[in-house]
Amino acid sequence: MADASGPKKLVLYIAGETPKSLAAIRNLEKICEVSLPGRYTVEVVDLKNNPQLAREHNIVAIPTLVRELPTPIRKIIGDLSDAEKVLVHLKVGDDQ
Amino acid sequence: MDGSQAHISGISKSLTGIAGFDELTLGGLPTGRPTLVCGTAGCGKTLFASTFLFNGAREFDEPGVFVTFEERPVDIVSNVASLGFDVDDLVNQNKIYLEHIAINPSELEEIGDFDLEGLFLRLELAIDQVGAKRIVLDTIESLFSAFTNPAILRAEIRRLFDWLKDKGMTTIITGERGDGSLTRQGLEEYVSDCVILLDHRVQNQISTRRMRIVKYRGTAHGTNEVPFLIDQDGFSVLPVSSLGLNHKVSDERISSGVADLDSMISGHGFHRGTSILLSGVAGSGKSSLAACFAAAACVRGERAAYFSFEESRDQTVRNMLSIGTDLQPYIDGGRLLHFAARPTFYSLEMHLAVMMREIGRFDPSVVILDPISAFSGNGDRLEVQSMLLRMVDFLKSRAITGIFTHLMHSQVGSDETDAGLSSLMDAWILLLNRENGGEFNRELYLLKARGLAHSNQVREFMMSRDGIRLIEPYIGDGRAMTGSMRRSEEARNRRREVERKADLTRRTREIEQRKRQALAQIAALRAEIEADEREIETVQSAEDVYLDQAASDKREMVQSRRAD
User: Fold this and answer.
1) Interchain pair B112, A79: CB under 8 A
2) Does B99 touch chain A (CB under 8 A)?
3) Global ipTM
4) Band (B368; pLDDT cuts 50, 70, 90)
5) Closest CA to B51 of B300, B233, B271
6) What are chain A's domains?
């Protein structure tokens, strides 16, 4: 059902290319490729270049992965090193 | 002295604009360093922090950022609006930025390592936006309920404080008091420069807010608890410093407002700046006499403050009107401050602090506390006495004449029970209410008056429409008489005098009568003598005539005998 509207957007907020941020990008790409092909597109936002966005999207911790749709909004913080856990949380409210 | 001390210590300080606090800390909070303000819920942490921040933006040209983790910015704006801060205006002028950092733990999941760089970025953005010199974090402890990994959080908070120090931000961090520690999350270990503890204690159902500077590195500070107040004027700290006995004394004499009382102390009244105790039983006229002092000050063109713990303003005005003194014009004219508060309204210390603040603002020359005995239910005697001592010292240091009324419960042995009080006072006027011949009469006695020659007489204290009069008692039959007894004695005297005068007139008249009678008798006798004299003359002339006749008869006889 949820797939009908095409791939959903995930936004990963980072602040500079720190080891934690790079690890998060790497982990997320892997998860999407291996476990969720075609279901999500990933956008990486570097808040160092645009700190205004941190305020707008209420980002405190870095890195933060935001899934705005479907509701409720989910935020996962950390370097996403535990793929199983990430999958569980991305699927909340998604699969029936 | 304050300035030099701050200078020597080498710490620069930022004024908070909080009444009393800047004096207490000799200049405010440490500039460019974090200060922890902690206390229990509802003790005024947020208000303290926001006053510091908004005052900085408005008064001291130091823009600020308010970071709120709990309350919404709208709530903060409306909370301080009642205290006269137009935060919206400050925001529009770009002097204040309100940053709301809300974290909803239910939508958040922690997977792996993270940091709080987002928070740093947002703070930096806000700081740069207004050019902030001050920042408030209220309260950063909320982060501990949002994130589950305390190790990361602690490291990040330490980094945050270091970062704020590097940026030279004068920071206030608020924290809720925990069990056995100053804050729940032990924030105090990150803040080493200045820690302020706010407290809100209830004793005998009376709450008192107190503040204590737990730590203030690099500066001298008192560690005493200091009361503070949150009212319509916002946050004010009320240092109740104890003062020494080195106040200047004045030789100037001021009238008590009762001419007869002034005349009892060689006619000029009491010294300015002394403390005067008026003690007496219920209904002996303490408040009225005290109010006379206030009225006299107003008449002189000075200001007087009347702190009443039993009567409202209108009540005092009405009562004084009954003895011919109208206080209302003085109140309206801003010369008389009537401050009424029930003793149970505040704690002792808070009462003292509030009075000191009012006195500081109003700057009166005469202060009346009516009555101080009202506090005895509020604390033990020692506490009341120490509060009064501070009050007396405070008034003396400002050369304010203090009048304290004290309700005695009994007239017997009063000298002893009030011994502690009396030693604080320079003058002690005792008002008595004595039963004599079936009626109670008020009496006034000047028990002591330091440095003043005074009458040792017990005077009768009379209140009427024409004011207060002190009447010398009638001394007769070896005792003083007052009231009706004095009046009847005086009447009897008057009667005796009248009788004596009448008697004198009568006797004078009698003597004059007798004198007149004697004179009349003299006149009558004299008339008799005159008559007799005239009789003698008549007889004499008849004799002469007879003799003449006899002689002529004889001659005629001789002639006729020639015929012989």
Assistant:
1) yes
2) yes
3) 0.88
4) very high
5) B233
6) 8-83 (3.40.30.10)
